[in-house]
Amino acid sequence: MDDIALIASTKTPSVKFSADGHLELKGRSIPENSLDFYKPLLEWVDNYSRQATGETTIHVQLEYFNTSSSKCLLDLFKRLENIGGKVAIHWYYEQDDEDMLEAGEDYEAIVNVPFKMIEVEG
Asked: Domain residues for 71?
């Protein structure tokens, strides 16, 4: 299974999805068409979930995301519920960014995957 590595743009986050169970989204997520951007990531997670056995951790460190990205993120997190082995979502937020903290808490309430809220200095 091939890893995914995408460089961040002004509208899309950097992506590092590795078959060893380390997944990362970092930056801004405001693509023109969120479905076009996230579809390959969702498909990768579907394929990964068929062979995952160890630990899977996704690190989400977004500065900002739009409404359509939020739906895609929820789809991504929901797919993580079905992965074998131990799964965790590490949600990063800046010290003074209550909106991002609340967004992580909202996802945590919806998705059946353990979240770890991690405060970073802005």
From this structure: 4-114
**Would 90 be classed as within a structural domain?**
yes
- Tell if the pTM clears 0.85, that is, is over it: yes
Per-residue pLDDT of the chain (122 residues; tens, 9 = 90+): 899 999 999 999 999 999 999 999 999 999 999 999 999 999 999 999 998 878 999 999 999 999 999 999 999 999 999 887 899 999 999 999 999 999 999 999 999 999 999 999 87
Spell out the SS3 assignment of the chain. Answer: CCCEEECCCCCCCEEEECCCCEEEEEEEECCCCHHHHHHHHHHHHHHHHHHCCCCEEEEEEEEEECHHHHHHHHHHHHHHCCCCCCEEEEEEEECCCHHHHHHHHHHHHHCCCCEEEEEECC
What total number of domains does the chain contain?
Answer: 1
The answer as to whether 119 is a domain residue is no
